[in-house]
Amino acid sequence: MMTARGNEEIDMRAYVIHGAGDLRLDEVPERELGPREVRFALAYGGICGSDLHYVAEGRAGNSILRDPMVLGHELSGRVVETGAEVADLAIGTPVAVNPALSCGTCRMCRAGRTNLCFSMRYMGSAAYRPHTEGGFAERPVVDRSQCVVLPDDVDLARAALAEPYSIAAHAVNRAGVAQARVLVTGGGTIGALTAIAALRAGAARVTVADIEAGARERVANLAEVDVLDAADEAAIDALAADPCFDVAIEAAGAAPALNMAMRLVEPGSRIVQVGFLPTAGVDLNRLITREIDLAGSYRFVDEFDSAVAAVLADDRLAAAITGRHAFEDFEAAFASAADKGRHLKVMIGTA
């Protein structure tokens, strides 16, 4: 099936996941724009953990792939075409793209919790059927409301970090970290950005725990944090004997990490779970005996615009991008992104 634009039929290349272990660089049709839509030329796209889950398992959490879908939701680019009712974006304008498009009318949206919208369309997500196409394509289409205008001389690779930073900022907001001693479990992209967001939100001290020495080293180079070897049982036991954290944010998505967090926070503390967990292996009895509050944190609400400003204001965040691949080099890009011992954030790019 082709989409006609004038007398011209145009295809573009896109990263299409067909099933577990079946990622392809396919030709897909471009569609005509709606009146409030924008077509942009992808500059950079960050490969997320959910993208890796779709490729490895055909699902991300409870979102199960049932049809082929374009991946990608950490995006930046430049405007190449606008719909008839979009008058405020010039061709060539650089933008960061908010992948979330809520309905605005359901009771969650009316309550201001747009991340929990019952009709959420989130780019590159199989949560609903039909799935919402992602942005790992040469010229994706989004609603005008999803475009955040950037300065002309912007680092578009760093701008693509806005989405994961938004998730980190939302987790920090859910936790309440002002003047707190904060434990972050997991030193991947979300964990590292959560540590940075926590410091900016006024945390007294932040410690990042990870089993990978490389992850601990990278996050220590990005921010003034302490690091903890999550595989050092003696160190964990010593800390558990006298818990010293007021709040924990679990970003590893691993049962041992949550179990460790429950041991290391003060009784009566709060743990925020931001990483998707497996369905087994979590011992929740400590929640009862130590009256720990466990809260979920899902995507973000209104943090995206401020996240764009935050990632562009901190030059050190350029170091969070540890791998860059050309758009057509999709197999190597995903292999790099899956190598957590060597990489923090891997970008695919056309810029």
TrEMBL record:
<dbReference type="InterPro" id="IPR011032">
    <property type="entry name" value="GroES-like_sf"/>
</dbReference>
<dbReference type="Pfam" id="PF08240">
    <property type="entry name" value="ADH_N"/>
</dbReference>
<dbReference type="GO" id="GO:0016491">
    <property type="term" value="F:oxidoreductase activity"/>
</dbReference>
<dbReference type="InterPro" id="IPR013154">
    <property type="entry name" value="ADH-like_N"/>
</dbReference>
<comment type="similarity">
    <text>Belongs to the zinc-containing alcohol dehydrogenase family.</text>
</comment>
<keyword id="KW-0560">Oxidoreductase</keyword>
<dbReference type="Pfam" id="PF00107">
    <property type="entry name" value="ADH_zinc_N"/>
</dbReference>
<keyword id="KW-0479">Metal-binding</keyword>
<dbReference type="InterPro" id="IPR013149">
    <property type="entry name" value="ADH-like_C"/>
</dbReference>
<dbReference type="GO" id="GO:0008270">
    <property type="term" value="F:zinc ion binding"/>
</dbReference>
<feature type="domain" description="Alcohol dehydrogenase-like N-terminal">
    <location>
        <begin position="34"/>
        <end position="152"/>
    </location>
</feature>
<keyword id="KW-0862">Zinc</keyword>
<protein>
    <submittedName>
        <fullName>Alcohol dehydrogenase</fullName>
    </submittedName>
</protein>
<dbReference type="InterPro" id="IPR036291">
    <property type="entry name" value="NAD(P)-bd_dom_sf"/>
</dbReference>
<feature type="domain" description="Alcohol dehydrogenase-like C-terminal">
    <location>
        <begin position="190"/>
        <end position="309"/>
    </location>
</feature>
<dbReference type="InterPro" id="IPR002328">
    <property type="entry name" value="ADH_Zn_CS"/>
</dbReference>
